[in-house]
């Protein structure tokens, strides 16, 4: 009898499980569209030129690795504030944003969730239906009761906005609402600018707490365009949370670079909030790691590197759009009768393809094309070499 005798086997993470199955698949034509990772046209994970140049400069002037401040590198936190709110924006200039460096976007969400649990222990959390699965797990593990607000409408192939608004309108005062700032994962459907105005109005009148998850800033329409929703919440005079991830936009997945920003009412409030966020960090992992944050800070704060990053990010964004169009055209050419042009309406890395679980299983077992059972495929993993094979495989299962 050991302390661990009664420990149950936890269910496997569905995406990681898919990866293991993919790795073991002997099919030479196999394609992994399950993961949320951007690959270049050669099917490789890019190492951005701006990152290489920043690292080269750092190597030329090696520095010792002391502990970082609990809230991370100041130049990094300031760059995040600029990116999220605008460096000359009123919230940044007036000092009412509390930003901390975090371990990826996940880390930003977790610090925010832990802080919110102390602040509003009885609040309910609403995530979109469906959402990135870790939203539920993360807020549940932080001690919250998590429910969903209506979002995707499979029949209409889009967002059921009326139902979404109705869910938000029915939420009790103080409910925490997790919103995808852009490039909704998993569906690929975002709401329009006018619909965001309505969401902001409901959040305000109902007294809800918005938590914006911005994991794909720059992957949709552009850095400014994707961040536009933040301006709407600011203009409404709301206080809210924003998590940032640079995993995708810098292709720095393993460096764990992200942030949490909390917009407060004034500078004094921001100082108090920051002090509490630091406790969350200190008692979890003490302080963040140096390398990823230093690289991102160097790129964002050096005009030439920043311009290069914006160019490389635009390149990734454009390639995804091209692959969406090729997918739609390729499916038609492969004989798919159904109009698949909805895939070009979707934005970001993913497409909810509308394929059923059975069809996804067949794609996997018969053709080695891996997507999730929900029908989600990662368009950012398609390339000019695998697109025809994928289109033909899909044509055979629909
Ligand atoms: N939020 C959403 C919606 C995501 O899709 C992801 C990553 O897939 C994250 C957060 C987490 O990002 P990170 O890998 O930086 O923790």
From TrEMBL:
Keyword Transferase attached: yes
Enzyme Commission designation: 2.6.1.-
Keyword list, A-Z: Aminotransferase, Pyridoxal phosphate, Transferase
Pfam families tied to this protein: Aminotran_1_2
Domain Aminotransferase class I/classII large: 29-394
SUPFAM superfamilies hit by this protein: PLP-dependent transferases (SSF53383)
PROSITE patterns, per database record: AA_TRANSFER_CLASS_1
Transferase in keyword set: yes
Cofactor: pyridoxal 5'-phosphate
GO molecular function (one): transaminase activity
Record family assignment: Belongs to the class-I pyridoxal-phosphate-dependent aminotransferase family.
Assembly and binders: Homodimer.
Name listed for the protein in its UniProt record: Aminotransferase
Organism the protein comes from: Comamonas faecalis
């Amino acid at each position: 009898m050991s302390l661990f005798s009664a420990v149950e086997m936890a269910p496997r993470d569905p995406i990681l499980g898919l990866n293991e199955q993919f790795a073991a698949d002997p099919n030479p034509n196999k394609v992994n569209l399950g993961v949320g990772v951007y690959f270049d046209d050669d099917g490789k994970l890019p190492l951005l030129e701006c990152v290489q140049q920043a690292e080269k400069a750092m190597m030329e002037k090696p520095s010792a690795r002391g502990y970082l401040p609990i809230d991370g590198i100041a130049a990094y936190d300031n760059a995040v504030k600029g990116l999220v709110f605008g460096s000359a924006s009123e919230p940044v200039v007036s000092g009412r944003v509390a930003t901390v460096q975090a371990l990826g976007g996940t880390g930003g969400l977790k610090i925010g969730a832990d802080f919110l649990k102390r602040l509003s222990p009885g609040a309910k959390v609403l995530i979109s239906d469906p959402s990135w699965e870790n939203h539920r797990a993360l807020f549940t593990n932080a001690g919250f009761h998590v429910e969903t607000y209506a979002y995707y409408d499979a029949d209409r192939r889009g967002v059921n906005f009326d139902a979404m608004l109705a869910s938000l309108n029915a939420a009790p005062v103080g409910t925490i609402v997790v919103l995808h700032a852009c490039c909704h994962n998993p569906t690929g459907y975002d709401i329009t600018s006018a619909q965001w105005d309505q969401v902001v109005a409901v959040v305000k009148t109902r007294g809800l707490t918005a938590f914006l998850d911005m994991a794909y800033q720059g992957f949709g329409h552009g850095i400014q365009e994707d961040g536009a929703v933040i301006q709407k919440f600011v203009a409404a005079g709301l206080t809210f949370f924003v998590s940032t991830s640079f995993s995708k936009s810098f292709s720095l997945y393993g460096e764990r670079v992200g942030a949490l920003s909390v917009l407060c009412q004034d500078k004094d409030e921001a100082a108090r909030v920051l002090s509490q966020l630091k406790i969350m960090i200190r008692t979890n992992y003490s302080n963040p790691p140096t390398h990823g944050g230093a690289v991102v800070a160097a790129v964002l704060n050096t005009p030439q590197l920043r311009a290069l990053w914006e160019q490389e990010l635009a390149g990734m964004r454009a390639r995804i759009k091209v692959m969406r169009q090729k997918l739609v055209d390729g499916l038609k050419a492969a004989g798919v009768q159904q109009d698949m042009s909805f895939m070009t309406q979707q934005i970001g890395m993913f497409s909810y393809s509308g394929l059923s679980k059975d069809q996804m299983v067949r794609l996997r077992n018969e053709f080695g094309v891996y997507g999730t059972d929900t029908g989600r495929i990662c368009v950012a993993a398609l390339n000019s070499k695998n697109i025809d094979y994928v289109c033909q495989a899909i044509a055979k299962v629909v």
